[in-house]
Amino acid sequence: LVSGGMDGSIKGWRSGSGELKEGFRVDGHSLGVVSLARSRDSARLATMSLDGYLKLWKWEDSEMVEEGKVDANVAEAWGLCFNPDGTHIASGSHSFRVNIWSCGEELTRESSLKSERGSMVMNVAYSPDGRLIAAGSSDGSIQLFDVESGSVSTKLPGHALTVRSLKFSTTEPDILITSADDQMINIYDTRNSQLTANLQGHNGFVFSVDLHVDNVRIASASADKTVKVWDRRRKECDYTSKAHDDLVWGACFFDNGSKLASISDDKKISVIDCATTA
């Protein structure tokens, strides 16, 4: 489990014996970390900070070391996501574009994909095969970019307010899950550009969504101070965690599906056993 802090630090945490223990700390930035992404194989980590730097990290002799950095301007690297093979990073931007960064010998901006909407691209997500990038914007719109052509291939029925999070299913790659400031969680079938479900239950912005390895359970984190777990097929909320005392910025399942972690403005990380959420 890795977190980025407003003090510019990047911390790794180990879960065991019912509590989290700090595994490592890197003071990687001079200002707060606003976005963090991990490659699928966990070999690389990308961080973006208010100090303007996009940084790439790798594991070396059990330590996380800086592999590259670029003065990206925080407005041009908002919301990060690795492609499936970890060779590129996509980011949103204030300039209405999706920027593609190459993780080669140097960390450089390789290309920019122009949005058809005149609003900030808040978050991005690669499809499991790497052919598409989903982009959610501040006006609530959701677009799918074809990576090869660099153009918008599909526009989805969006949200009423800012899109905060996007997540593709790894086992059903046409399924896309999103959350937004309209308090909604949407489920899309990207094959036919249809909204197939709308999950309602939060009483505040929904900042984050994640999908369990079972491809059924969805976790959501909200400004209403709760984390909810939903059944994607029944379209119902099965569990609500009230472990936090302030808005919850993020929630994610462990890779093996055993636990669910969340992070909040109360400066706490909560970890619960997924057996209690089923």
Structure characteristics:
278 residues, four-stranded antiparallel β-sheet, mainly beta, single chain
Write up this protein.
It is a single chain. The chain is globular. The protein is 0% helix and 58% strand. With 278 residues, the chain is an all-beta fold. The protein is built from no helices and 26 strands. It starts with a strand and ends in a 5-residue tail after the last strand. A four-stranded antiparallel beta sheet has the order 4-5-6-7, with no helix packed on it. A four-stranded antiparallel beta sheet has the order 8-9-10-11, with no helix packed on it. Strands 12-13-14-15 form a four-stranded antiparallel beta sheet, with no helix packed on it. The mean pLDDT is 94.
SSE arrangement:
Elements: E1 2-4, E2 10-16, E3 19-26, E4 33-38, E5 44-49, E6 53-60, E7 63-71, E8 78-82, E9 88-92, E10 97-103, E11 107-114, E12 121-126, E13 132-137, E14 142-146, E15 151-156, E16 163-168, E17 175-180, E18 184-189, E19 194-200, E20 206-211, E21 217-222, E22 227-231, E23 236-241, E24 248-253, E25 259-264, E26 269-273
Antiparallel strand pairs: 1-2, 2-3, 4-5, 5-6, 6-7, 8-9, 9-10, 10-11, 12-13, 13-14, 14-15, 16-17, 17-18, 18-19, 20-21, 21-22, 22-23, 24-25, 25-26
